[in-house]
Description:
alpha/beta
Amino acid sequence: MRILLAEDDIALAELLEAQLSEKRHGHFVDVATDGEAAWELAQMLTYDLVISHVPLPKLDGIGLCRKLRSRGHQMPILLMTARANCNDKVLGLDAGADDYILKPFDFEELAARVRALLRRGNSACSPLLIWGELHLDLNSCLVHYGVLPLHLTPKEYGLLELFLRHPKRMFSRSEILDHLWEIEDPPEEETVKAHIKGLRQKLKRSGAPADFIETVYGLGYRLKPLAEVAYKKQRTEVALSESWERLREKILGRVTTLEQATIAWLEGSIGEELRQQAYQEANKLAGSLGIFGFIEGARLAQDIQSQLRSELRVSDPGQVLHLSQLVVALHRELQMASPMPLVAANHGKTYTKLLIIATDVALIQELISIATMQDLSTQVVESADAAREAIADQRPDAVLLDLSLSETHGLKLLAELAAQTSPIPVLVFAVKDGLADRVTVARLGGRAFLHKPLAVGESATAIDQLLAQVEVSKSRILAVDDDPQVLAMLKQVLEPWGFKLRTLEDPRLFWEVFQGFSPDLLILNAEMPHFSGLELCQVIRNDLQWSALPIVFLTAHTDPEMTRRVFCSGGDDYISKPIGGPELVTCLLNRLERTWLLRNIARNDPLTKTFNRRHFLQELEQFLHLARHYDQPLCLVLIKVDGFKELNRQQGSTVGDQVLRQVGSLLLNTFQGIDIVGRWGSARFVLAMYGLTRQEGYERLVEAMENLRKEGFLGCDGKALKITCSSGLVLCAEDGDQLPVLCHAVEQALESGRSTALRNRQEAL
């Protein structure tokens, strides 16, 4: 990695350059002895990290930091100083620095901070860089593809690290030279080609594809993109396969019950109780085997269920023989095959992870199905001890805990999770539903409670609310206080929870900083010079866009008059100084959770998680304004699930809802970034694609329709359903530039089959 070192002490600069050099730590260091020289180098080259002494000639380190941030440079910045003054640290961090180190320092500490900042600068929280089956450990400098080690030269290692730190970026040969070679004596660009070739050969020998590092002719090199559709399928297979391995013996136990019933029937000793038990087990198998990929097994279970439903006649040898053949075939089907191969699926993308602690097969199947639809990662364990090991290995974002496995151990685990510095939100499933049971769960830190057996859709709603607490920890908070010590304390308390905190000491800069940061919550000191927090609160409440923003006050006065003024100005809550950390965190979490839930209820369709019609129209109105103002194209698309009423009639509304959830999830995954997706009503979805021409819109739509065609839909019997969709597309300006006109036009395009070319393409597929 390339580092810019700004240090006016030449002896120290040479020492740091030598220590951080390629031989010791794999970095290339450019040295500037004053702030202006450092600024000029930063304009010419791309740096992964800046290390700057604070008191520099011409332009000090804090000024350099401000200048870099004002021009959009996002690389991490580490400031060095001999002054242990808290105000200096606050000034540096407010100027945009990421870390601070005091002189004199131990070099190993500096090296550790450099490694941490380089990881943080690339949004990684682990010393492992992962792309598919390739793993690069930054601490040990070891590289593996699958289980095979790669023995790389320093330049090959540097190339691979560069690509893995920026997996979606294209690098030209000249950019690679800038990153990996000394600026004074760079080699010819053909040297890069030779090193790329050598790296590809070593990757190929380890089992990687020949084009793992892809050449884009005329532009440069990049990592070959991982196919998102294939990954989604693979991730689903992983979750289901792992669940199958855990639940296999229980499912085979149900087959054993069927075998016992068949033997009793052959011997003429089967009773009504055993027949009913066998019928129930066949019913459960028919509903669950299809989820695990055993389509033939699900069909056999349905046939067995049908046989057991009718009156058993011992005198009919044909009926007895047919049932025994079905049971034997089912047993063979489950013993001989695994539903789908277990595969490793870590492709560098971060998914919200749920840890499921349960032994209830039906509950686990339902939770995995919900997680798959919501693009969530799952892990299933069957005991509290296994859960502790899983959490120690990789912290989940949320836990789903079934107390049926062991109430005592489950409640103890619940208390442990709530006692962590940053508690993991837990959804509890319980058979007991008394007030005392609910109070116990609440006291121990449970964040949601569901009584078993569950109503249809109850789990999905509860998981949505639980994930609101996960999203809350990523919220952006702006804190305004004229006391720098209070701001420093807020950083210490809130940042370990994952909050993105921005602090401001001068309230005169409030509006500029506020608009640039767009916070999810505002913390204001009630009394400040120039503009008080009460006045700033009124400014926010008078703004139509921000009037609903949650605002929490900090105040040293708790008398009734101050309390009245806080709430009259529009404050939602207040915290008394001196501030208690737990009290502050609890207050902010509760306020953000309710705001997040209310916002989602107001703008999202509860079934599909897409925008509801009202909010979509609000977003579309803004798109239309931008399209007219900047003379940009805007495509509006309407997609309809064909024959949805008939589907509901034949399969039931539960299957219909599942189809809509899958379609909504797929559209959200396909149309990301600036595109918006909404539910238009019943079985219709609406899309807006800003900046795309009609032809480009058609191409994106064809891609979405192909993905829908490939999506696996299951009926109530576990068998595959064939779902087709129709669509219509219109273009703003050509088909109308006012909202009512455009909406009418897209309705007509859908109903009249205006998108003829697209329909023909769908039929051909």
